[in-house]
Specification:
CATH architecture: 3-Layer(aba) Sandwich
Number of helices: 9
Structural class: alpha/beta
CATH class: Alpha Beta
Helix content: 40-55%
Number of domains: 1
Strand content: 5-15%
Number of strands: 5
Low-confidence stretches: 189-205
Distance between the termini: 32 Å
CATH topology: Uracil-DNA Glycosylase, subunit E
Mean pLDDT: 93
CATH superfamily: Uracil-DNA glycosylase-like domain
Bound molecules: uracil, iron/sulfur cluster
């Protein structure tokens, strides 16, 4: 299937998905949005109140900050694909649970495979953990690693930066690295290799 068709198929499946208990309380599932040929994919945590109301990712306060961060590198949300680890809102915005993340993982993996971006930015620790299990975000934020032929760059979640003013500068500085990383990522072979499971083996780019 072509990438657009696959993204539409995933969105349609997510809209009626009952694979985990979050389907009971959601108003709208939030599959994610953006161009199928995006170079850059952002992966957040999960829908919050506003996302659940609208069925769109990052449309609340964290989304406004994400848009500001994108503007700081002369980009806009229309140019990138934005999605989350879990597609339905956890009640009261609690953290996603392991069984929910596992139940939803196939959708995210299929989205990434369809888009085949050069660079993935993980926002917060839950999306980071999909690529770097057992690593602390304070140790690797802003550091790009090659995972399965693409660059993955962990960053703090914009919502964390809104709650913790000292993180704001850190997120802004990490974002400022992106244009250079996107440019350099074109050189990486797109050959798919198994992701390293041992964080010590990750090659920092
Ligand atoms: N926070 C997230 O992680 N994702 C959203 O879509 C909105 C807020
Ligand atoms: Fe399905 Fe994911 Fe929603 Fe759970 S969070 S119901 S697995 S789409």
């Amino acid at each position: 299937m072509n990438p657009e068709g696959e993204l539409e198929a995933i969105a349609a499946e997510v809209a009626v998905c009952t694979k985990c208990k979050l389907h009971h309380s959601r108003k709208h599932a939030v599959p994610g949005e953006g161009p199928a040929n995006a170079d850059l994919v952002f992966i957040g945590e999960g829908p919050g109140f506003h996302e659940n109301e609208q069925g769109r990712p990052f449309v609340g306060a964290a989304g406004r900050f994400l848009e500001e961060l994108l503007a700081s590198i002369d980009m806009s949300r229309e140019q990138v694909f934005i999605c989350n680890v879990i597609k339905c809102r956890p009640p009261g915005n609690r953290d996603p649970q392991t069984d929910e993340i596992q139940a939803c993982a196939k959708y995210l993996d299929r989205q990434v495979r369809a888009i085949n971006p050069n660079v993935i930015v993980t926002l917060g620790r839950f999306s980071m953990a999909r690529y770097f299990p057992n690593v602390r975000i304070s140790a690797i934020h802003g550091k790009a690693s090659v995972v399965m032929g693409r660059l993955v760059v962990p960053m703090y979640h914009p919502a964390a930066a809104l709650h913790q003013p000292s993180l704001r500068r850190v997120v802004e500085e990490d974002f400022a690295l992106l244009p250079e990383l996107i440019a350099r990522s074109q050189q990486i072979s797109s050959s798919e290799v198994e992701p390293p499971t041992d964080p010590e083996q990750l090659s920092l780019f």
